[in-house]
Amino acid sequence: MPGLLEEIKYDLNFMKSHSLQPRWYKFLKVFILVGFLVGYGCLFGWVRAMVFLASFISLSLLVHLLYRAKTNKWTKSWLDFVVVEEGHERRARSIGKFYYSAIVLNTLVSVVISQVSR
Length: 118
Known about the structure:
The protein contains 4 helices and 2 strands, in the order αααββα. By secondary structure, the protein is mainly alpha-helical. A hairpin with a 2-residue loop joins strand 1 (82-86) and strand 2. Helix 2 runs antiparallel to helix 3 and helix 3 (46-70) runs antiparallel to helix 4 (97-116).
């Protein structure tokens, strides 16, 4: 279990420190998700909103783990994840259309899953 905890800490540190998204967007996306969930819950019920949340988080975790594995813990480029060397240090520079397309697809699949559940 200590190994898993260390890997989670590693990823959390990367997510806090990377410059792939502006700092304000990292903060704003939490409110976007909460606002979406509140609206979804009011429109379709809280059970469906929680099913949406569970499936969205699960699918997003899969995307995260796929990128983590393919980029060798964020140290090499893969698809739209670009790593550059600056001096003796590697730094993630950009992420783009594949990642954000996966997030949109996760959202759509989660909506469908939550609508057909019950």
